[in-house]
Design a protein that fits this description.
With 77 residues, the protein is mainly β. It is 5% helix and 52% strand.
Length: 77
């Protein structure tokens, strides 16, 4: 398994299947075209490690509202 600091942590704003806007810190793994829980059709999906929850998650790309590399989160602008 690869070390977490081998990749860039990304923070995303994501609309979950219930319509809630949530913030997640993730380590992206891969992008696939498939059906995921909470959705009924195949679509582009980002597979990633949720840093705070410590689990692997699937995020529908169409539901990611914004993303930002972690090193920019503390930028003074």
């Amino acid at each position: 398994m690869e070390a977490e600091n081998d990749h860039k942590i990304i923070e995303i704003l994501y609309t979950d299947p219930c319509g809630n806007m949530v913030k997640r810190r993730i380590l992206p793994r891969q992008i696939l075209f498939r059906v995921i829980s909470g959705h009924t059709r195949e679509q582009w999906v980002l597979e990633a490690r949720d840093i705070d929850a410590g689990v692997e998650e699937s995020f529908a790309l169409k539901d990611i509202q914004a993303w930002l590399p972690s090193e920019l989160l503390a930028a003074p602008f």
